[in-house]
Amino acid sequence: MKQILVPTDFSENSFNALAYAVAFYKNTACTFYIMNIGALSESGIATNGFALNYNAIDLPSKMALLEEKIQEISKNNTSKLHLFYGLQEFGNFIDIIRKTIVEKKIDLIVMGTKGTSTLKNTFIGSNTEDVITKVAANLLIVPKKCKFQPLHKIVFPTNFNNFYSFDILQSLTEILRISNGVLEVMSVMVTEKLNSSQEKNKNYLHEYLDEVFEDRYHFYSEKNKNVKDAIEDFTITHAIDMTIMAAKNLNYLQQLLFNSTIKRISKHTKIPVFVLHE
């Protein structure tokens, strides 16, 4: 059974991300852990030297809201393969995520994009960015108001600089088998030709896909383009339904996600991004 963690701040974005994941894994046995992480100051525990004073007056409210939401989700979910549990934690966001991954044996984290921010006008929020860079777990990022639709075409941007480990290929294979989609492997050439290491990695990926998904993949190469522009333009011209990226390919990740404004992303990227870790 697949173990999926969905952090929520009770926003529309977080529950929309959950709805997308539920639809994507409709035929897969899954346990969804819907977790709210509050600041330690909200925990009802006040410290005074070595003494701890417990004041849990406000603690039940968020948990009650979470349980109410889970009942609603369970009622509307038609799959008998899914289980839903609510979790309430307090403390540092990343520390809690890491602890939960170990305790619940989490396979995947699902998060929604924040949509807007008065602090930093970027596509993803700081929590999502921290999860990508600081947590070694696969992450599905679902844009605001993105609704699930069958995945016909999935793009895998790469520069072929990194070797494709078993974990990366296994995750890639799972997504393709669940979606029954076609994988479009695209690279942006910043030099005239690939070096020997890049050629080796490309050939390895080609041989793997040819063996596992014959006739369900293509390779494309774009030249003389900014990486971010090339990926976004490719997404539009090829009617892409999802982007898959390897977390260790930080150059592509940073350019597409971390340095992209909402205004630009909203025009070009309204599709989920699956970030794969080893």
From TrEMBL:
Q: Where is the UspA domain?
A: 1-143, 223-276
* Protein family (similarity comment): Belongs to the universal stress protein A family.
**Protein name as catalogued:** Nucleotide-binding universal stress protein, UspA family
For this protein, the record's PANTHER family field holds:
STRESS RESPONSE PROTEIN NHAX, UNIVERSAL STRESS PROTEIN UP12
Pfam families per UniProt:
Usp (PF00582)
Top-level taxon of the source organism? Bacteria
In terms of InterPro entries, this protein maps to:
Universal_stress_UspA, UspA
